[in-house]
Every structure is written in structure tokens, then in C-alpha cells.
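Quick one: co-fold with zinc ion.
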Amino acid sequence: MPFRRIQLYISYKSMELGFNPEIVDAKNTSRTCPMCGEISKPNGHVFKCKWCGFQADRHFVAAWNIAMRLLMCRPLPLAAKATHEALAEVERIVIKS
Ligand SMILES: [Zn+2]
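Sure, here it is.
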């Protein structure tokens, strides 16, 4: 299924349920390091930053970067230098506030 059609269906269904969908520019989302912001080329499914050494699945990196481009999701990745810090930040923001 073409990407634009999927985007249209998701927008339509989310509006039907009362949500206001936001369109995010996906350019370089699988090539941008979520830790340092530098661009590195993924090797297969693995993204490894040639600047800081961060390594993860490229789809995870893309999803992470897309979330960072949404205003409501920005506080989480900024504090996510390590998994335990990310989880603590999620607990602080989502559970305690
Ligand atoms: Zn990096």
C-alpha cells in the first residue's frame, strides 16, 4: 500500500475518533542519531552513529526521531541518555504528573 494512502487512512480514522493528527517530516529520521543529532548511514537494519557510537535498530531510531519532532513528545528523548534514565523520565512525566 502506498505511503500516502496509509497516511490518509490513519489521519481519517484518528479524526473519526476525535484526535487531531499531526504530519511530521520523515526526512533523515532513520539516519539521525537521537543522542547527538549527527547523521550516519544505517547499515542494513542497524543504525550506528559514527560520531558518538550510539547503536540501535534503524526503525527504532526513526520512530524515536519522529516522536522528537512532535511537540508533545520532546521532553522524553532529551533526557534519554540511557535506558534507565529514559524510564525514570517517563515515570516522572507520565505517572507522577
Ligand atoms: Zn551520535
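If it helps, The helical segments are 3-16, 58-69, 75-78, 83-95.
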